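User: Quick sanity check before I run a bigger batch. Here is a single chain. Can you write out its predicted 3D structure?
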Amino acid sequence: MTARDIREVGEASLSWVSARREEFALGAYALAEHANVNFTWKPLGELAQVCVSIRRHTEPDDPLHESAAELLAFAWEQTAHGGLFLELQRLEPFATYPLEIYAAFASGGLRHTGYERAAATVARTRSWRMTEQQPNRRLSVLNSEQRSCVPQHDDMARALGRTWLGGLPEPWTFESAAGYTLTHVVFHLTDWGLTPQGIPPQVAQHLRQWLPPWLDTCLEDGQWDLSCELLAVAGSLPGPPDRAVLQESWARLAQAQDSSGAVPEVGAGRAGHPVADDFVGCYHSTLMAAFAAVLTGYRLRAYVDDGAVAAQVHAFEHATHPGHEGRGAPR
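Assistant: Done. Predicted structure follows.
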């Protein structure tokens, strides 16, 4: 499995997302009192975040960059260019999910000053500071505040210390719920792969030691969605990527990808239906496959300039495609 093969997984994934983009639309019930945000705002926010990350880690003339930019523009239009966030703020003033979703757009340069002013007002209240949240969710809110120019109400390092990963857990206590919390802790610490140095050294060392067996366990069990998130974590760690882990893990993930580009969350799809037709059952894992593939490619290119690492990446690139030339380090 070469860097080019990994990129092809990402290209196929983003192509499927582009073809199904209308299914990310908010719809008429996005602001309804009893609407389920997991089927309205959440998918749209995840689309926006992945597209922002892909744009950050690709060159402007890269087709992946162009596709991500188009999808991000589509997602922003769904929010009435940020206007619906202000309405959400009025309807649910102390809910954190609007800020967390808005922050993805804001980090991509799409902002609504009226919403940010309203969010900053709520964030100054005692109620906002004392809202009871899961520790990894607290990190999400803190990172969202920072991305949205809202004063942070707590310290990231202190919040990290309350998380499962921040406690440097015993490796044998890993299970799927812990896996999803640790991946998002890393995403919030690194601003979704942008700043690997945001991971404290002791946490990074713990991940370097135990991420490979955790990832292997998820791949073995057909937990493709979580495997994609763990691969994105591998692409967010400081230092050179682990070539051996990437080769094997991406080869196994590629086998799970449907010919359409869709990746099932678990196993081979739901109730025997073709993966490509199961939007709810594969949209998130397919987004995560694109995200992880782009991060992995970026990290491999980023270390080409380091002599010792260059040889490692060169071998990785040419493992099964001798004669293929890499693109070199990004600008």
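The CA atoms of residues 34 and 110 lie 28 Å apart.

User: Great, the batch can go ahead then.
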